[in-house]
Amino acid sequence: MRLTKFTAAFAGLVLAGSLAACGDDSSDSEPEVVTDAEFDSGTTMAKLKEAGSMTVGTKFDQPGFGLLGLEDVPEGFDVEVAKIIAGAMGIAPEDIEWKQASSDIREQVIEDGDVDMVVATYTINEERAERITFAGPYYEAGQQLMVNSDNDSIEGPEDIKDNPDMKVCSVTGSTPSEQIKEYLASDDQLVLFDIYDKCKDALGNGQVDIVTTDNVILLGYVDESDGDFKLVGEQFTEEPYGIGIAKGDVEFCEFINKTLADNEDAYVAAWEATAGEVEGTETPELPEAAPCA
Amino acid sequence: MSQLSVLYDAPGPRAVRRARIGTILAILVFVGFLAVAAKRLNDRGQFASELWSPWANPSDENFSAVWELVGKGLAATLTAATLAIVLSLVLGVLLGVGRLMLGPILRVPVVLWIELFRALPVVVTIVLVWRAFKELKIDLGPLPGDPGLWYLVIGLTLYNSVIIAEILRAGVNSLPSGQGEAALAVGLTNGQTMRAILLPQAFRVMLPALISQLVVALKDTSLAAVVSLGYLELLRRGNLISQNLDNPIQSLLIIATIFILINYALSKLAEYVERRMSRSSGDPAAAAQLEGAGA
Amino acid sequence: MSPVLDNLDLYWQGFLTSLGIIGWALVGSLLLGTLIAAFRVSPVASLRAFGSAWVTVVRNCPLTIVLFFMAFGLPEVGINVSFYTFGVIGLIIYTSAFVCEAIRSGINSVSAGQAEAARAIGLPFTKTLTQVVLPQALRATVPPLGSVQIAMFKNSAVVGAFGVGGDLWSVGRNLTSAQGYAFIPVLTGVAIGYLIITLTAGALLAVLERKVAIAR
């Protein structure tokens, strides 16, 4: 049954999540909450520490990174990364308010000031950097293709043009949906949804032939499909994930970068408890942060 | 139904036999379709117990969590729909009375407003409201609840209030003209005539249409699930649950059933009220006619 | 307004795609709705039951959920067509329930005496229905049927969220989220597109209503 493995993985996730939430002292993935940190007044950090709470935008529908679980709290790598950063400002995980930040509105919620930061499989690119500031990257993903296991005609993005009848699925407003365009025979090949989960369902029932997005997201689906799906070809893009914050908040950006660099153990533990549970993933090393601007 | 039977004679023995054969044939065709669908669903493992048990089996580890989330989603949906209808009623009466009573020039903006929001898709209105409030820097923070709730409620209100305004206008126009004329003849002003004579009667005629409009608003709350408002109403909750359990068909079926049961109860209520009202004066059909097909 | 003017060709394509969806759904929902209405007044009990079950279920279910079932449920029973077709089918199914009710209310509006008189002069059921009741019912049906269809035109925006792509709503979403244009001008363009459709339809309907109006 395709579900059993998934259920097991899911139970693992829930277990890891509940351990962290209960503050069980045996868990080393528990993000450290620093209560005595000092910040210059006027900085975002000082404001948040003063408030004792913050609002974080993340995805609610991205297994392994940010998925609203049945306990009504989001779970995943992005969520854990956010907890590490919040902890360094003395904000406990239960004092974080989670807001849904789907691909199409991420810049918007930052500009509107609805959230203090966005951690949501958020690829750093120039276009977005015009509207917001990115801290990080904290993870390097790469775009790949996922097809049904019995599909032998697609072995990489170059094969898409030769199969103009095949439909490629991605998500509105995502970088993969833009980057795949150069490999398409025509725009009609592209099917767009608001979330990747619909793409996965559409692939499962034959409505689309290829799903493309970042490898780690696809790996989660391959893992839970129990052999129905496979990844093909190499990663053909580089997708550095950053943390989105208000445009020009360099101090906050530098603080985030420093926090991540100082907490590599927590970073690794966060990975292993979430996205790292999926077979075929490798524990990443924290990439070198880009200069803040 | 009693009226429809007028269309054909009381069936004789042959007609009865033919109708019976027709019935059996129709049932066979229908059952055939169902069987094919069921077989295909079964082939794709859609009847596997893992997919259903979180919904149906109280001893399943996820059963209580899942229904708790549905409860939250349902509360969110009902909150949004109720707020939208109450606000629509207030705004709709103002607009409707405005359209009926204002002079030919003052009436123009009201008519334009009504025609504009009647003609826009609700989903476009909701997103426009969200962005307009943000760009105009109107902070909804002081209002209780999630801002996403209010964008949804305001969007729904803009649409439903103009429908209610039109229902009200139709309700007042459906009253015998003698009512208003008599009121004016005994010396009441225009405003008094509207307030004391016309509106109270119009409301009675309108009541079923208003309840039907609640069904429209309730269904439209689910539009929040296809725009990224982040308001977790019933449908969005169902989608998120199915992502955890990987059972979209089963979860959607449950959510759909909940919507259908509530809306069915409401439309039955509307029918009941309409039957009671039809004993009194006025023409409920005229008011009910405006009830459109919401999303 | 420059996002709209810069992408006028996209908007035009979106406008045409939306019109296409609307056109198919208009024809389909009228046919299906009439069929269901015929079921509901037919002498065959099982058809009547089917008709009223159809209306009860479809009318009380949000369009978004109907569309979810089209796009992700139908493939599970082996029906694989494009998302465009799924969207149109969903819109047809949803609208058919309202069309059915509009037609039924039209039939109800014809006074019982008409049917009685028709039968009294010896017309059978089919002739009573097609030559006496329906022609009169049609007139009373035009206004409600018109508003049902205009509501459908607006509902077609929702179809864009289900993988159709290229319709007015999807064009707007693509311009704002993928290409980073500001929402208000882009959405204003989308809104104008739908206003053109619905206001034109409303005006046509008003003309039609005046033509078929009957003094009672």
TrEMBL record, chain A:
Keyword Transport, does the record have it?
yes
A single GO CC term, please? outer membrane-bounded periplasmic space
Q: Signal peptide location in the record?
A: 1-23
Q: Which Gene3D superfamilies does the annotation name?
A: Periplasmic binding protein-like II
Question: What are the entry keywords?
Answer: Signal, Transport
Domain of life, source organism: Bacteria
Domain Solute-binding protein family 3/N-terminal, first and last residues per copy: 53-278
User: What processes in GO biological process is this protein linked to?
Assistant: amino acid transport
InterPro entries linked: Bact_solute-bind_prot3, Solute-binding_3/MltF_N
Q: Which family does it belong to?
A: Belongs to the bacterial solute-binding protein 3 family.
For this entry, the protein name equals: ABC transporter glutamine-binding protein GlnH
**What is the originating organism of this protein?**
Nocardioides dokdonensis FR1436
Q: What gene does this protein come from? A: glnH_3
UniProtKB/TrEMBL annotation, chain B:
Q: Where would I find the ABC transmembrane type-1 domain in this sequence?
A: 74-270
What GO molecular functions are on record for this protein? transmembrane transporter activity
GO BP field? amino acid transport
Q: Which PROSITE patterns match?
A: ABC_TM1
Its localization reads: Cell membrane
Q: Name the membrane topology term.
A: Multi-pass membrane protein
Q: List membrane-spanning regions.
A: 21-38, 74-98, 110-133, 148-168, 205-229, 249-266
Tell me which GO cellular component terms the UniProt record holds.
ATP-binding cassette (ABC) transporter complex
The UniProt entry, under InterPro entries, shows:
AA_ABC_transptr_permease_3TM (IPR010065), ArtM/GltK/GlnP/TcyL/YhdX-like (IPR043429), MetI-like (IPR000515), MetI-like_sf (IPR035906)
Q: Which NCBIfam families match?
A: HEQRo_perm_3TM
Question: Would you tell me the protein name for this molecule?
Answer: Putative glutamine ABC transporter permease protein GlnP
Native organism taxonomy:
Bacteria, Bacillati, Actinomycetota, Actinomycetes, Propionibacteriales
Automatic annotation (TrEMBL), chain C:
Q: Origin organism of this chain?
A: Nocardioides dokdonensis FR1436
UniProt entry keywords in alphabetical sequence: Amino-acid transport, Cell membrane, Membrane, Transmembrane, Transmembrane helix, Transport
Annotated protein name in UniProt: Putative glutamine ABC transporter permease protein GlnM
Q: Where in the cell is it found?
A: Cell membrane
List GO BP terms, alphabetically: amino acid transport
Q: Where are the transmembrane segments?
A: 12-39, 51-75, 81-100, 152-171, 183-208
State the PANTHER family in the record. AMINO-ACID ABC TRANSPORTER PERMEASE PROTEIN YHDX-RELATED, MEMBRANE COMPONENT OF AMINO ACID ABC TRANSPORTER
Q: Which domain of life is it from?
A: Bacteria
Give the record's GO CC terms. ATP-binding cassette (ABC) transporter complex
* N-terminal signal peptide: none
